[in-house]
Amino acid sequence: MKTANIADLREQARRRLPTMFFDYIDGGSFSERTMRANEADFDDWLLDPLVLRDVSHRDLSASFLGGEHALPIVLGPVGFAGLFAGNGEAQAAQAAAAAGIPMCLSTFSICSMEEVARAADMPLYLQLYILRDRILCEEMIERARNANVKALVLTVDSAVSSIRERDTRNGFRTASRLRPGAALDMALHPRWAADMLLSRRPRLGNISPRCSAGRNFMDQVSFLSNQLDPTLRWEDIRWLKERWNGPLVIKGILTPDDARRAVDHGATAIVVSNHGGRQLDGAMSTISALPSVAAAVDGEVEIFLDGGVRRGTHIVKALALGADGVFLGRAWVYGLAAHGRSGVADAISLLRAEFDLTLALMGVTSIAELRKTGTRLRRTQPGIGNAAVLRRAS
Ligand SMILES: Cc1cc2nc3c(=O)[nH]c(=O)nc-3n(C[C@H](O)[C@H](O)[C@H](O)COP(=O)(O)O)c2cc1C
User: Which residues form the FMN hydroxy acid dehydrogenase domain (predicted)?
Assistant: First the structure.
């Protein structure tokens, strides 16, 4: 059957991956309320089309973080992507390059930043945590500079790691060794297993040169997980800015107050994000958080949104409510897990087609026009589903 949308890629990923890996990607924290709300709350916003407005030529390009890009989309940081397909991060980077969009590599990646930079010619961003071991963090910043990384993306919503109950059940990252059932789980997914057998042994590429991180993959994972620093405060942003004078994106902002703090501490951009509902369950969805964050920032820095983006309409809604672009999380990883590089390309092209059509059907031909005409979004009363107008974004 042909792949029609991101949900199809998700289903294909589910079939190809061992359950514990699929659950790791697909799951959220605690009751997964925030994770579900991220996607569902896009439906709170209705699109008002404008008709009879020559939409024969459309321009989907976007400029952000100092570059011109084919789409307002970034492949966002996703840890362990190289476990879902061999050299997964490099394959994703190649798909991003072919589509003319940037990719942001996770600190927790299998391929190193240098390998990804070599694999594809696209703007590479590096997602970073300020680690307890500041020397290690400085080394990573220096490597990022040498690898021509265009922006650092500092994730700030992970002072501690949350509990993801699917991972608890599967023993993913919670056990120091694989459960006996895990080997069976892997053997029952031969396409994935063959791909992994043909790839080199996994390691965390961004830290593996460090002896103290250990040589064994599981040791490296626990070393890096223990590096998350719960003592971090806003003042620590200065430490980072003294070492990196390129664009700095702060990822994990949900409130107007924190958005202002990010601006005041010298961020170039922010990502309105709740980590895909994987950290604070009960936090508001990102599309609900975006309008007040955008109002507080008032154009002083660029804004990205992530969380639940599975449709071109979601991208249009995010842009109309004040975002300059979106980061994809699960959407591209489902593609990677299903078909490697071509699956990531499928995810991007499905979203491109939906985004393009949605713009045309709304009667606008570019992102600038989407903003200028104040193409209307109407907010339904959440949870009621009628079109009671609470707010008109213009
Ligand atoms: C499997 C997985 C691993 C992730 N790893 C990271 C990470 O290493 N660093 C980070 O900043 N965000 C990470 N995220 C969060 C994503 O960058 C992004 O915020 C989130 O996936 C967006 O929600 P969505 O998947 O619903 O689109 C991860 C998300 C997933 C699904």
Answer: 1-380
CATH number for the domain including 87? Answer: 3.20.20.70
Atom of ligand 1 nearest to the CA of 271: 19
- Single out the residue of 80, 153, 128, 98 nearest to residue 333, CA to CA: 80
Neighbour order of strands in the sheet with 392-393: 45-47, 377-379, 392-393
What is the rounded distance in angstroms from the CA atom of residue 200 to the CA atom of residue 264?
Answer: 44
CB 72 within 8 A of CB 165: no
- Alpha carbon separation from 341 to 78, 85, 213, 309 (Å, rounded): 15, 9, 29, 20
CA of 154 to the centre of ligand 1 (A): 13
Residue at 290 is within a domain: yes
**Residue 127 CB less than 6 A away from ligand 1:** yes
Ligand 1 atom at shortest distance from the alpha carbon of 108? 8
Q: How many domains does the chain have?
A: 1
Q: What residues act catalytically?
A: 275
* DSSP three-state, residue 63: strand
Segments forming the whole domain that contains residue 60: 6-393
In a domain, 1, yes or no: no
Going by alpha carbons, the residue nearest to atom 3 of ligand 1 is: 78
92: pLDDT confidence band, cut at 50, 70 and 90? very high
pLDDT tens per residue across span 29-60:
999 999 999 999 999 999 999 999 999 999 99
Q: Is residue 211 part of a domain?
A: yes
